[in-house]
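Let's sit down with a protein and look at its sequence and fold side by side. We need material for that, and I hope you will provide a protein of your own picking. Once you have written the record down, we can walk along the chain together.

***
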Amino acid sequence: MSNNVRNIVIAGLGGQGVLKASDIVADVAFASGLDVKKSEIHGMSQRGGSVSSDVRFGSKVFSPMVPDGEADFLVVLDPTQIEVNRAALKPTGILIDPSILAGYKLKSEKSINVALLGALSRHLDFPESAWITAISGHLAPKLHAMNFAAFETGRNA
């Protein structure tokens, strides 16, 4: 990982695990020795409304908010949130959305957040073991096998 700050925006609807996904990304970066800042916007998340979370990491990060047009990655858990959040993505940024999972079957739709983190992980220079450790730390043991499988699906998508 270079010294420059990486900007990730994760967006979706309330109940999809946006905040859990951003916590996992933040933990992976922090465990790798980077400075990490995170912020979140809940909106009407309790009712299925828009939720987004910014994660920034690098050798030194001064602000938790990703400036508009500066996200290196936009991870969108629900297709309805793509256009709502597209302004966050820089012109050379990468959109990761559920369409990349077309043709793959997840054991549970509830693990789409972890599946898309699997896809994101292919673009970041962190060992797969760091992702597995972070996922384990944020989910109940009974959910580990299903989410490890979802993560692998995303990595392979």
Summary: The chain has a mean pLDDT of 94.
